[in-house]
Specification:
This protein is an alpha/beta fold. The chain has a domain of 165 residues: P-loop containing nucleotide triphosphate hydrolases (Rossmann fold, 3-Layer(aba) Sandwich). The chain has ten helices and ten strands. A hairpin with a 2-residue loop joins strand 9 and strand 10. Helix 3 runs parallel beside helix 6. The longest helix has 18 residues. It is globular, with a radius of gyration of 17 Å. The mean pLDDT is 90.
Length: 238
């Protein structure tokens, strides 16, 4: 089951520094939305604010009909929102299976916990093969898959991914994006994807927002942005 997300007049940053200025965007239930922009545009700050990692200075964040603006990060997975941070940030000295268990902590003890683990192993068969291996010994692509699988363990309605292509080979980048699109379709997830690989992000998403210096400067269907010569020149090197 998917859920919508609405961000209204959001200001956020670190200490006295404001990074996001009057950001507005909406994600319909079941959509894949890409947020693209240059380094330093505020993309990661946006995800961290939605995820409760850093507090909003002002504005409103609605998950479905629930105001989560002031909710801390540890409460949100049980409400259906989860995030895969840049680089995955696995626990390297824990096994793959233990990392996945951590991802499902908010569901631990529920009847669906074991079923969720079985489903994840079916969706990511390579993780079943690496089940007892230390996560720090996985390849880059395997680590990213494990990070996504760990997020899926919380049985989310909306999943946010921060730069899932970082450090991956072109072939693995394509595999990871195909996985994200297939996972969203199979589980009916809403997806917010922050990505510097603009071509791949626009290919996999339904709509996209362009974030520049902390503000949304454009939004359009992804296919429209992919064909726009200004976007291609500024963000895709074409």
């Amino acid at each position: 089951m998917s859920i919508s997300l609405n961000v209204t007049n959001l200001f956020a940053g670190y200490g006295l520094a404001t990074v996001l200025e009057d950001v507005n965007f909406a994600v319909d239930a079941g959509e894949i939305i890409a947020v693209v922009g240059a380094n330093g545009a505020g993309k990661t700050t946006l995800l961290n604010t939605i995820a409760g990692v850093i507090p909003a200075k002002s504005g409103k964040i609605l998950l479905g009909d629930t105001d989560i603006t002031a909710d801390p990060a540890h409460r949100l997975p049980a409400m259906g929102l989860t995030m895969v941070p840049e680089g995955g940030r696995l626990f390297p000295f824990m096994t793959v299976h233990e990392n996945l268990e951590v991802g499902g902590f908010c569901r631990r003890g529920s009847p669906g916990f074991r079923a969720a683990m079985d489903e994840v192993m079916e969706l990511f068969p390579i993780l079943g093969e690496r089940r007892d291996q230390m996560a720090g010994l996985l390849s880059g692509g395997e680590r990213q898959m494990c990070a996504i699988a760990r997020a899926v363990m919380s049985q989310p309605k909306l999943i946010m991914l921060d730069e899932p292509s970082v450090g991956l080979s072109p072939k693995m980048v394509h595999q990871v994006f195909s996985l994200i699109k297939g996972l969203a379709a199979k589980k009916g997830l809403t997806v917010v994807l922050v990505e510097q690989n603009v071509a791949e992000a626009l290919e996999v998403s339904d709509r996209a927002y362009v974030l520049d210096h902390g503000s949304i400067v454009r939004s359009a269907p992804s296919s429209e942005l992919a064909d726009d010569p200004v976007i291609r020149d500024a963000y895709m090197g074409l």
